[in-house]
Write a structure and sequence with these properties.
Strand order of the largest sheet: 10-9-8-5-4-3-2-1-11
Strand content: 25-35%
Number of domains: 2
Number of helices: 7
Length: 258
């Protein structure tokens, strides 16, 4: 131990005494006496060593983090963790404190997204998918359904007539339409989104409407579709069908007015 400094000898005697044999500790004490190190100098060296030990502990504590499995469990059980371990930063666990805040925030966002998904009705989900489709570029961008179309929904005796007017506009790659149903007593206006699928255009209402005879349609319903074959227009009836006219899918029901 002759090559050990006074500071190292004091460390052996007072700090690391449990790690050394008794003979080594006695040898360190004898060396300090031999070097004529005073008690005051030993006390100063001891205080310096204590400060260094405390700084090392703070450094290790500050960099100490949670195990990944603990973080996962913490995110899952975040409501139970909010009131626990709130004093980590004051205790010097800076990394743990940051990990705790981030993990609890992440857990809260997961619970919030699950809660919101439960609140969204199937109809709203369907509406989102419809408008998502509407926002996509039209595959057959050369097809332009813009114009005014009309269909006379009537019986053979023509005592009950409902005029269908379909006004289609196109802005960039998106079609919008207004369907107007009109009889002698009532006029109903339905705003729609037009989706191009292959060679057809499908019409979906933007909300829920109550029609004649208390029939209801909603924004996820495909009302009807139109297809072209030259100048002829073919109608595919879906959720919205003629009220009076007895028909299946037929040519020429809708005709373009302008």
């Amino acid at each position: 131990m002759e090559n050990y400094s006074n500071k190292e000898l004091v460390k052996i005697i007072y700090i690391e005494h449990s790690e050394w044999y008794d003979e080594d500790i006695e040898e360190a004490k004898e060396l300090l006496k031999k070097r004529e190190v005073t008690e005051e100098e030993i006390d100063k060296l001891f205080l310096i060593l204590c400060d260094e030990r405390d700084e090392e502990r703070k450094r290790k504590t500050s960099n100490e983090g949670y195990h990944p499995i603990i973080l996962v469990l913490m995110a899952i059980s975040w409501p139970l963790q909010i009131l626990r371990d709130r004093g980590l930063k004051k205790e010097g666990y800076h990394r743990k404190s940051k990990q705790r805040i981030s993990t609890l925030s992440f857990g809260f966002l997961i619970y919030l997204s699950m809660f919101i998904s439960v609140l969204i009705t199937p109809e709203e989900k369907e509406l989102k998918s419809v408008y998502k489709e509407a926002a996509k570029p039209v595959v057959l961008d050369t097809i332009d359904w813009s114009g005014n179309y009309m269909f006379m929904d009537s019986t053979k005796t023509k005592k009950k007539n409902i005029t269908w007017n379909l006004d289609v506009t196109k802005h960039e790659d998106k079609h919008n339409a207004i369907v107007t149903l009109k009889n002698r007593k009532k006029s109903i206006i339905i705003k729609c989104v037009g989706l191009i699928r292959e060679k057809k255009i499908e019409f979906y209402p933007d909300t829920t409407y109550t029609l004649f005879e208390n029939k209801k349609i909603s924004y996820y319903d495909n009302l009807f579709s139109l297809a072209k074959d030259g100048d002829n227009i073919y109608t595919y009836w879906e959720a919205l069908k003629p009220f009076n006219y007895s028909t299946s899918n037929n040519w020429g029901l809708f005709r373009k007015v302008n």
